[in-house]
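Budget justification note: compute hours in this period were largely spent on complex prediction jobs such as the one shown. Inputs:
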Amino acid sequence: MIKLYDYELSGNCYKLRLLMSFLGLEYQTEAIDFYPGNQHKSDAFRRINPLGQLPVIDDDGLVLRDAQAILIYLASKYDPNGKWYPRDDAALLGQMAQWMAFADGITATSSAARLHDGLFYSSIDIDAARAGAHRLFRILDEHLFFAEEAGQDWICPGDHPTVADIACFPYVILSEEGGISRMTYPAIRRWCDRFKRIPGFIVMSGVFPAGPGFTDAAGVAA
Amino acid sequence: MSSPKCKDPIALNLWYAIAPLEEVLDGKVERSILLEQPIAFTREPSGQIAVWSHDGDGARPVGASLPVQERYGYFWTTLGTPDADIFAIPEYDEPDRRNIHAASFGVNASAPRLVENFLDMGHFPYVHTDILGAEPHTEVKEYFVERSDERDEILATNCKFWQPMASRASSGGADVDYIYRVPHPYCSVLYKSAAIDPARMDAIAIFIQPITQESVRVHMMLSLLDDTSTDLDIRLFQQTIFGQDKPILENQYPKRLPLDPRAETPIRADKSAIVYRRWLSDKGITYGVIPAAA
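Corresponding output:
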């Protein structure tokens, strides 16, 4: 069975919990004392991931690190419909890779600001982290706005969300914990709301479910 | 120390928990902030903890240390001259208890907003869904609040709430009894029925260290009756709960707690908050609050 080395308050671990929930996959977790214990920097954990970072999975002996890499692996192996990581369209593969790299930028800025404010990572330049997150959010907001204009709900073209949406979601939705407001990014806020309505969506601490929405039938009746 | 940035004499003269003892290491100087005053601390070769205030460079002035006490797994200090000792938590010394530091978290909210949230049962089903509450069990039943002027603290008793998973040691839903104490303007202790022994109670405390009027470090201490869970499981359970409270706390406006009774409209379930606000008002606290108009 898949084992996830996990920490509840980690947005990167949440990415994998989300995908496994969307796919209905069963898995085990091993809780890592990320804070305050710093267990991910211990010698024992560095033997599992020499980078000393979460998340890591162990799938029947295959040990993988890096949230984006694990998303690709799990979607490729366990999504019978191939919807979360479609592999037969070169353009789409390129776009998914582009936005997954973008998600790493969100981690480096928005997640860093959250660690600074919440967990006292005092070496982080908080002003640079917040400014960097706003720069990325502006780009994502514009992209999502034009996608909506073209009738698209998700980051990459198509009628189904992909691993790119999962990779970007956690540190966007947790951004306020780092003092980064999403007030001026309406397309991001609409995308977050759509994301929360994907069947199988789960929350983590700090993330709340979507509010009650109208079904089509209720909308017509109203 | 030059004149303090915090001008509230009540706040200046209180004791504050600053860091868990296990994080104060020999010879290593750590920095923190208390009431906007930069402070630094270390453990000396003698084993004693030394704390001092500084102007931002961390440098230790000769012979100008701040008072230190070790209590409940943390060291405490003060920028003033407290007229009372740190409040008692007698349960901490019971031999069969597990005393655990769950975490210290930074929160962009005022200290009194944290205390009020800690006292509030009404949010359990909505914020801690399927852990500390679940719909349709949303009613906050009538409870008692008293203010002891002799002990200078607030006590809320006879609080009851149905909880799906009251603690890491729970095996299912249960009606849980709660008692709340507010023995310090920025600290609170709650007691709740212990999963393994209904006749006794677990204790959970928050010790808030105000950084500024609108940002804090909150230290969470657990004193539990639990002979099965690991320290890590217990700590992570509490972190999960607090992680759910955090966005709620950080989205409360105004960030400082308004003490004017007309500023926010309480409901019956907020009885303890009403008494808490009045207590702060009567003390004359100004730090982290919006005082009522005279």
